[in-house]
Amino acid sequence: MNKDAIIRLVNEQMWPKTDADVPSFKAGDTITVTYKIVEGSKERLQSFRGVVIQIKGQGKTRMFTIRKISNGVGVERIFPLYSPHIEKIEVNKIGVVRRARIYYLRNLTGKKARIKEKRMTSSTEK
User: Fold this and answer.
1) What percent of the chain has pLDDT over 70?
2) What percent of the chain has a predicted confidence (pLDDT) above 90?
3) How far is CA 100 from the centre of its chain?
4) How far is it, in rounded angstroms, from Cα 111 to Cα 53?
5) Strand, coil or helix: what is 95?
6) Rounded CA gap, 48 and 89, in Å?
7) Are 63 and 57 in contact (CB under 8 A)?
8) pTM for the full model?
């Protein structure tokens, strides 16, 4: 076995999720991540909804950061994209931003922190 075959084998066993299981999203989109929390012998699902402020990495090690405001305090959470603890990722809104990493959102509050939403038009309206 050569090096590439070994890497492929390890990737398949460590990350059972494929690209088909993960929806496509980018910085500026509002998404809801439902992930599994294990506390002792108990398991529960918890959702985290916020704006994607960055996506970094490549391949199976890709990670994304989500930001939300909770009780007036900014909360950011970093998730590995192919984590086995992530139950599902749901895209709620598609945002329009000009940057791949929107760190400037950290300094904004109120209406200034809003992101324009991309209007979805159906192709059957013609």
Assistant:
1) 88
2) 56
3) 13
4) 17
5) strand
6) 10
7) yes
8) 0.78
Of 34, 56, 54, whose CA–CA distance to 46 is shortest? 34
- Side-chain half-sphere of 79: how many Cα atoms within 13 Å? 25
Distance, CA of 32 to CA of 110 (rounded, Å): 21
Enumerate residues 6+ apart whose C-beta is below 8 A from 65: 52, 53, 54, 55, 56, 76, 77, 78, 79
* Beta bridge partner(s), residue 39: 42
> For 36-94, what is the HEC assignment?
EEEECCEEEEEEEEEEEEEEECCHHHCEEEEEEEECCEEEEEEEECCCCCEEEEEEEEC
| Per-residue tokens: 106 | 């950290």
Q: Residue 2 is encoded by which pair of tokens?
A: 């050569």
Of 88, 104, 106, 118, the C-alpha closest to 26 is 118
How far apart, in whole angstroms, are the C-alpha atoms of residue 23 and residue 33? 11
* pLDDT tens track for 67-98: 999 998 999 999 999 888 899 999 999 999 99
